[in-house]
Amino acid sequence: MATSVVAEPLDLIRLSLDERILVKLRGDRDIRGTLHAYDQHLNMVLGDVEETVTSVEMDEETYEEIIKTSKRQIDMLFVRGDGVILISPPLRTN
């Protein structure tokens, strides 16, 4: 089997090692970082991470939704797999 063949879902994650990926987590959190390691439970170790947290608040006077985002940089992060909703590998052009 060639190393770039995707036969199972985890193969796509394997091909993304040492690449920047997007991970959507529970609680309206998105993280982008370099995938260093993962396991069958989707526990992951990411480096050079940017975390974006989105929150929606209601204006008490106008009853309009106010969407707020906050970002932070993290050098190294362990992500527990049960909080993962989606993993987006890097865009491949070939």
Return Rg in Å. Answer: 16 Å
Strand tally, please?
A: 5
Described by the principal axes of the CA atoms, the overall outline is elongated
What is the spatial order of strands in the main beta sheet?
A: 4-3-2-1-5
What structural category characterises the helix and strand content?
mainly beta
Percent strand equals over 45%
Mean pLDDT: 91
Number of helices: 1
Major sheet size, sense and barrel closure: 5 strands, antiparallel
Oligomeric state as shown: single chain
Walk me through the structure.
There is one protein chain. The chain has 94 residues and is mainly beta. It is built from 1 helix and 5 strands, in the order αβββββ. Strands 4-3-2-1-5 form a 5-stranded antiparallel β-sheet, with no helix packed on it. The longest helix has 6 residues.
Descriptive keywords:
mainly beta; 54% strand; 5-stranded antiparallel β-sheet; 94 residues
